[in-house]
Amino acid sequence: MALLEVEDLVVRFYTEEGVVTAVDGLSFEITRGEKFGVVGESGAGKSVTAMSLLRLIESPGRIESGEIRFKGKNLLEMTESEIRNVRGNEIAMIFQDAQTALNPVYTVGDQISESIRHHMDFTDREAKNRAVRLLDEVGIPEAEERYDDYPHQFSGGMQQRAVIAMALSCDPDLLIADEPTTALDVTIEAKILEQLEDLAEEFDTAVQLITHDLGVIAEVCDRVMVMYAGKAVEKASVEDLYYDPKHPYTVGLMGSIPRVGGDSARLQTIPGRMPDLIDLPSGCSFHPRCPYAEEACARTEPPLVDPETGGNVAATGERGAACLAYTGDLAGSLDYEVEVRGDDPRAEGEGSGDNLRTEGRRGGDKPRTEGGRGGER
Amino acid sequence: MSTERGRITIEGFDPEVVRERETPTQEPAGATDVAVESRWARAWRRFRRNRSAMVGLVIVAFMATVAVFAMPISLTLSTIGIILSLAVALGLSVLSRFRRRASTLLKAGIYGSAALALLLAVARYYPGLTGPSLTVQPIQLAPYDPETLLWIDDPSMERDMSPREAGLFDHPFGTDSEGRDMFSRVIAGSRWSVSIGFVVVTIASIIGVAWGGIAGYYGSLVDEVMMRIVDVVFAFPALLLALVIVFQLGGGYFQLVAAFVIPGWAIYARLIRGEVLKTKEMEFVTAARALGARDRSVIFRHIVPNSITPVVVQASLNVGTVVIGVAALGFLGIGFEAGTPEWGHMLTNVRESLIRGPGASINWWQTFFPGAAIFTFVMAMNLVGDGINDALDAQEDIEPIGGGG
């Protein structure tokens, strides 16, 4: 049994302009210890999905239907006090903007030990010891002294580490990281991601990493789900997604990664923008922006199918893409090509996928990280 | 569309060199040397630099001290019991924040002592259960009893004696139209005015903060209903409402407190609600909820402390307003027994005899000293309030224009 199973989740927001369907029939699952990436443009429903997992959707939003089973229990049917016990204790969240995710009136240490005291049967001193240890583990120097610092005395990178320490404070089984490094510069980003990976491994925590940065996904995740307008358009293992993307949207996203030394004069983008979630286009919601769109795409909404067989994929399905090309309803074909320079790790195991941004980053940024100590203060 | 892109390769930049170098060329900077300072400590530091606010604070502290020591304080055993058990309850609940394991025992202690306080409060209504009085503060600064008519026992005394006639050292403020020592009355009167201002503001702001915090946090219908109630309270002129309440409840200290709390809490509710609406959108609130905090602790531990600043400022400026209100009621003769040494009430005692036709002297001292006392206290309190306002203002380096308030 998977750690987390989300089935047919629908989240709507009843705004004055109309009903926004932020998440529309989403299904996925995360197994124990897995690192699961969720990627998509702004407004794709990534964060709403994350908030739903903790039942933190606030009015005017509502989880309309679906099931979120965590360790077999449906979170949506829990009482308020049961869900409170899950929050922080079993599922914890890392927020995008660490600066605002820390309460400015309490010391960093207080905030970490508060949740420890809240969930675990710890005395004040034990909680403090644990908090200091956690701060140390996430790489804050002189953790004992920094325990009594206020958030504004921490640098951006250290604040993010403190937020991670807070999320790890009660040994959660699932860590939801909502764009944990978007607010940071790349050198610190690389460090934090690496640390997140190590810590997840050490604590055997499953991670759901939400980001719009495909490079981050490549670096950290095992499996990826690409979201568009509240739906999953592609699900795949990270290698499959990069070397053999099946959905035109995924291909578009990868094409628009800016890269130093690229020979195109300007940034490639996907034309148009995310549709209005109040009034979604008919059929496939990506068709107005899709270069391969045909008439059929405006009529029929493609299901998430196995791109090889065209058969339905269950939530557990390893590989899935929601495009009519795989159900045989498309007259043309998706004639993009993905060229892989260097070795394909799928063929050679732990080879270096050095076409990816990951590698450029790992090689190029490390030295700057080491030298750039001043940025950490 | 192709995913083929160029790459940059750098050769010769070997980070291992840095890592393997024996002596680090640069020690990490010691940011820990910077003294940790909470925002209240910072506010106090800035408050201390504000001279007029410090003068105000000294005056307020002086008058509060005088109020405490003006007359002896004696309490009945039941009152002492109430205070003690409330203190125990408070102390235990503070303690329970630091311990998790003995929480059942602590809870029993907290609820037990709170129940004891309630029981003793009820017992006060049965004479004979209150027990004997105990003098807890024996010092008396007032040279005479403020309510004794001196001329009855002392043949040398008259009514309406000016400080000069009565002797500057015996009766520095003269005597009033009933022949009571004005100095003693002004000193004893500070007990009413000074304490009532603080008590009213404390109770009103606690009620208002809880009310507005809950309304702002839950929003929608809860907010709508709660804030309309606040609007109803605002619809009455405060002093008029206070007047009606005193008429209904009769005179007395706690009746007066109620009379000012009932119209007074609304401003705090409205202030904090606005701040809460702003604060609750911040990510640390969601973060706290994501860590499993209860609504109660989200509101009162995370949102309210970040929204409290305007309430503190309003409260400090409001003390003076309440004191003036009490004096106004006193001047109207409402809420006090005749002869009570309350500053406003003292003014009304001499209202009819102040100017007595051509040729007669004006008994200036009978209005001057109580009036000056009101003025001084309210003035000092407003200086303090302005100082707090400036000290809590986030823009440290910008000199405030006009001083706020």
Care to describe what's here?
The complex is a heterodimer of chains A (about 375) and B (about 400). With about 375 residues, chain A is of the alpha/beta class. Chain A has 2 domains: about 5-220, Rossmann fold (3-Layer(aba) Sandwich), CATH 3.40.50.300; about 230-260 and about 270-325, no CATH class. Helices cover about 35% and strands about 20% of the residues of chain A. Chain A has 14 helices and 11 strands. Chain A has helices spanning about 45-55, 80-85, 100, 110-120, 125-135, 145, 155-170, 185-205, 215-220, 240-245, 250-255, 295-300, 345-350, 355-370; strands spanning about 5-15, 20-30, 35-40, 60-70, 75, 90-95, 175-180, 205-210, 225-230, 230-235, 320. In chain A, helix 7 runs parallel beside helix 8 (about 185-205). Chain A is globular, with a radius of gyration of 21 Å. The model of chain A is unreliable at about 350-375 (pLDDT under 50). Chain B is built from 16 helices and 2 strands. The longest helix of chain B has about 35 residues, at about 180-220. The model of chain B is unreliable at about 1-5, about 25-35 and about 395-405 (pLDDT under 50). Chain B has helices spanning about 15-20, 40-50, 50-70, 75-95, 105-125, 150-155, 165, 180-220, 220-235, 240-250, 255-280, 285-290, 295-305, 310-330, 345-350, 365-390; strands at about 75, 135. Chain B has about 400 residues and is mainly alpha-helical. In chain B, strands 1-2 form a two-stranded antiparallel ribbon. At the A-B interface, helix 2, helix 4, helix 11 and helix 14 of A face helix 1 and helix 12 of B.
